[in-house]
Every structure is written in structure tokens, then in C-alpha cells.
Amino acid sequence: MTTSPSDMIRVALVGCGQIADAHLQEIRKIPSAETVAVCDVHQDFADQAAARFEVPRAFDDMQRMLSEASPDVVHLTTPAHTHCRLATELLQAGVHVYVEKPFTVDVREAEAVLEAAHAEDRSVCLGHDQLFDPSWVQCRAMVQAGAVGDVTHVESVLGYPFSGQFGRQVATDRNHWVRKLPGGLFQNTISHPLYRITEFLTDDRPALHANWFAGSADVSIPTELVAHFRGEQVTGNLLFSTRIEPQRITRVYGTHGALEVDLDAQLVRRSRQNRLPGAFEKLEMPLRHCREATGNLCRNVWRFLKSDIHYFAGMRCLFEEFYASVRSGSPPPIPYEGMLRVTRLMEAMFEQCREREEAGDTAPRHSQERIKVESDHTIKSDQRSNQRPVTTNRDESRELQEAWS
Amino acid sequence: MSALVTGATGFLGRRLVRLLREDGLQVTCLVRPSSDIEPLRQAVGDALWSGVDVRTVELMDENGCREALLGCSVVYHLAAGLSGSTSTLFLNSVIPTRRLMAASVSAGVQRFVLVSSLGVYGTQTLPPGTVLDERSPVDPHPHLRDPYTFSKVVQERVAWDAYKASGLPLVVVRPGVIIGPGRGVLSSRVGLRLGPLMVRMGGGQQLPYTYVDNCAAAVRQAGLAERAEGQVFNVVDDDLPTAKELLRLCRKAGAGVKSAWVPRPLVQPLAGAYEWYHHWSRGQLPGVITRYRTAAMWKPLQYVNDKAKAGLPWRPEVPFDEAFRRSLTIAPAIG
């Protein structure tokens, strides 16, 4: 089926850095969309993107691009600290805007963009594209079908070694724009694992405990972040680490089991308690794993044969849904409340991390030091309760005993 | 006389700085805040180090560049991105070149040497066996090549624009693949690296190699030679081996290289099949192998250095056998 010219969405892109390649590549796959222009403050950047993705016009001035190329939708793939200003300008110019994550630097900016969208009657879509990834869609469907019962806890891991291309730039360039964000390195990347948690942890303001620290002595910026969330029904854990291999894994725990989604491997694994008694239990689990692995292998082989395995598949689906919503005038695929909630949580996390940093309470201490502090505290409380401290760690227990003696 | 060198802490740059110091020039080195100076200091040596002024200046900082250029008569621009996405390479090569050239024009430097790459030639249209020299055409469609080549072609274009518009006294050096201690000898000109396996593409193609010390000497000359402005010099060594000969030399030297072979007549059809699959599958496999790139990379051509020898003048002092031995002996691993 061909799309008539009047149905075609005219797309432009502002900011021709690394992530722009993924956008331009995925837009090309959508029959009802055409990229009419790219723009960057460096004309060389705009030119290279235009040449490689066969975009007819390349600009170094956004306003000129808007007036000469007349796009319906503009993708904003500039650094995060420019999102608020540029998105507002674009909305005021009458175009719909797709903003690459993170949405804005803080909640105030996020609200300003959404207000502009409301005032101009234009749509904004945020790049929470992994919610549209095939493996995440499969996980969501399984949860909705009751595969794990009621969701009780979600755990999200993002492995982001500094050896990667972008990480290397941030690590070596002290003036890199990412370092200037309130959430530093995390602000640019953490929304992906976070919105995978908030899909199930829907509280507006869950209780939060967050901490960041430098993963090794030779880095000058925080590189590791852990956060715990407690909502009414669901709790969540988030781990961002530069010390583990690249990975995007989320585990959704429920009252009757758990699902593990590996977005890189495009796998969903299910675990639940064994049903068989005694020694048979030891056979049941590997058999179940074997059956599940065979199913996953067959599914991925079939998808490969259909040429359906693409790293940015979620991005393309989200683009398609956004364009469809623009065409029909329906609400955008990522609800505004969801955008605000993730932005609010990020802001709160970074604020708490900074507070800990200012209080000198971020870096993990050596075990001896930690035990001493804990034992001092424990002794005081134990003097009141007249009970010995309980610990699960044998070494800690020994050290505490020494402290007691 | 004094010189300014960008990329001075790099593989080629530190050897160039030493040569310039041996000539008695004062050398200003522009380095990034993250650069490790120690390899440069070791390469130059304590005796010559006093004439080296290391300045931490980002090349994007045009004013900083202008300040560093005060009193410098020759600029050697070696800094460039070597890997990464196209935008990263443009950010590290093209934009800084623009800024540095603008600063050099306003500072009135007497010579600007740009170290480009032999990869900029558009060899796709040349018949096999053609002699590739400085008159050969630059690739007219560099965006169809790999990101590095694309960035080098545009970087050169920026330089030539400045030469034409502002009269910047430009000399362009186009080295082949630079080999040397720590870098090994196997490159993508031999074939495709698949994990531990080197897939040799054809094998009869001559390899456009230059040993790092030879290359540094040529670059030095480009800054000093008379009547070199507005000219291009290809830099490759003499007695270049073919891909097949190089792998044989590696095995003979005891460096175990696992290799497979794709006969020359099959290279283009296989590249075409891969390219077709890439398009058909809408990018399920990345479009890294295309007929266009394959023709540019593995076509058998003859490489010559006559112009550099006569015009700079220059001679590759380290013969290939010795260059091979040194690269192999000190390198931690081949490749």
C-alpha cells in the first residue's frame, strides 16, 4: 500500500550527533514519513548526516529550517540542557516535537515544555523507546496475562562501561556537556532503566533512597548509582554501573514468579517456584530452563529469518505511534504524566545524591571503617536492648564480636 | 624558527616532535586536558625536552589556538579522530581543523601542514593495476565510505577551502597505513578481522604502508621544503609487500596468524550479496561491507612515492624488512 503525499509526515531533525544516526535510520523505515531536513549549529554535522541518510536539505539555523522545509514533526536530538529552549521554540513555531531522552534538565523545564505544547495545541513525545521494544512488549503482555501474579518489585540494571564510545568521550573530556548536567553522566542515560521500573511502580512520589559514587579512584566524577524506590504496592531497585559489562536487564517480580527481560539478547525468561517435591525439584528447574531456552532460540531464529531483529526496533515503533497520533489528533503514545513522573524522580534522585555527596556520605567505606561505625551504633542500641547484634556476614560478625570484647 | 604540533602525543606526533627538536626548532605542542604527556616526553628525551612547550588547549577554542600560534611559523596538524561514529570523527577532525585554520590565517603562519590519509582517493573507478599517485581523484562520494575516510576527505576539503579563500600556505601529506612498534602490521588493507581470524581479501594487492619514523621524516620535510605550498605528497615506503606476502612474513617470523582466504574474483560478488542482504533486511546486519567500500579497500593498485622523494625531498630511511622486524619485535601482539 502506498501513502499519498498528503498523508506523509514531513520530519526534520535538529542536532546531528551520534543518536541522530539512529533516528534518521529508523525514520527511513517508516513508509508514511519522509525526512525533509536536518539541522545542526555546525553545518559540517548537518551536511554529513544529510549525505549519509539522503536528506534533501541541511541547515545550521533552526528558524530558517522551519520556514524553508516546513516540517510537521521535528526530532530534537541535541544535548539535554538545550531541550527546554529548543522544544519550546519548535512548539511555538507550530510543529510537533519528539524529544530524545532525557526530557529536560529538571521538572520546571519539563512543565514549561508541556505548557507550551498545551498553549500551541501541539504534541510532544519523549524518547522512552524501550517501552516499545519487542522484548519489553512481550514482557508487558505476559504480566498482563498474569504470568507473575501481582507485580511486587522491579529491578533494573544498566551496564555502561567507560570503554564504550560515548563513555570514552565523557571520561576523557572534562568539558563534555554531559558532565555539566545536574545528574552528570546518569542524567543522560538513566531514564531508560528508570521508566522500565515506573511502568509498574506507578506511584506519583514513591519513597526514595539514592546514592552515587565514583567507581574507582582514577575517575573524578560519580560513575555508579544505586536507587531504591518504595511505592504503595511495588518496590524498585535501580543499578547503573560502569564496572559491569554493557547490559540492559530488568526483572519484574510478582506474587507467583518473576520475568527477566534482556533487551540486548531480546529474551524474556520466566522463573517461578518449583512444584515437584524433594529431589525431583532439582530436575524440574533445569528442564524448565531447557524448554524455555529452546522456545527463545526458535523465536529469535524466526525473527532473524524475518529480519526482525533491530537494536532500535522500539524507537521505530514509537515514531510510528507518534506520527499516527499526530495524524489523528489523538494523545501521544507516552503520556505527559509519565514524562513528568520520570523527570521528577530523576530530579529527586540527583538531589538526594548531591546531598549525600555534600555530607560526605556517598563513597562506600572500607569494611573495617564501616563495621566500626556500625558496631558503635549497634553497641549503643544493644546496651538498651541487651541483645547481641545480628548480622548475616561471618566476617562482620567476627569483627563485631571483637568490638564487643 | 618554531613550530606548533597538534596530535603531538600520538603515535606519529611524538616522533615528529623529536625530529623537529633535533633540527633545533622550538616546538609548541597543543594537547587535550586528558592527554598523557609521558610518552611524548620519553620519545623526545630529556636533552631535547627543554625546547618543548606543552599547552593544554582544545582545538575547538579558536582564541586559545590563536594565542598558542603567536610566534610559530609552521603548523603541523596531526590531531584527528581515528575511530567512532561519523559525528564523533567530525567532532574530532573536521570542526577542530576549521577552528585551527581560521586561527592560523589570522596569526599569519608561513606554512600549514595537514596530515591527511591515502584513503581519501576514490580508487573505485580506477582499473586494477593503476599507479595511484597525487593526480588520482579524491573520492567524490566519501559518505559511502567508512566514517574515518569520510571525515578525512571533508577535513581536507576544509583545508583546501582555506587555502583558496585565505591563501593559507597549505601542504597536504597523505600517508598510507602507518605501522610501527605497538601498532603491529596487519591492517584492514589485508582483509577483514573476524575475532582471531584474518579473512584475507584477494591477496595480490600491494599494501600502502609506511613505517612511522619514515612517515614522521616526510611530515617534517613538508613543513620545511621550499615551494611546497598548495601541493599534495603521498607517503608510502619502498618495496611494499602484497597482503599474501605480509601474512607469509608473519608466519615466518613465528607470529601465528589464523587466516582464511576469499579469492579476488569472489570479493565483489560477496560484498554485493552482503549489501543486498543489508538492504533487504532493513539493516539487521550493519552495512559495513559494500561494493563501493570493497573496491576502494582491496583493489590491486601500485603505490608510488616519487613526488615526495623529489619534492620534499625525502627518503624512507628504514627499509620495509627492518620496519617489519621492529613492528613485530616490540609490538605486544600483531594487529
Summarize this structure briefly.
The complex is a heterodimer of chains A (405) and B (335). Chain A has 405 residues and is an alpha/beta fold. Chain A is built from 14 helices and 13 strands.
What would CATH call the architecture of the domain at 5-128 and 313-335 in chain A?
3-Layer(aba) Sandwich
Question: How many alpha or pi helices of chain A?
Answer: 14
Instruction: Count every helix of chain B, treating DSSP H or I runs of 4 or more residues as helices.
Output: 12
Gap between N and C termini of chain B? 38 Å
Give the helix level of chain B as a range of percent.
40-55%
Q: Which spans of chain B have pLDDT < 50 for at least 5 consecutive residues?
A: 331-335
The global form of chain B is globular
According to CATH, the fold-level topology of the domain at 5-128 and 313-335 in chain A is Rossmann fold
What is the CATH class name of the domain at 5-128 and 313-335 in chain A?
A: Alpha Beta
N→C terminal distance of chain A: 82 Å
Tell me the overall shape of chain A. Answer: globular
Order of helical and strand elements of chain B: EHEHHEHEHEEHEEEEEHEHEHHEHH
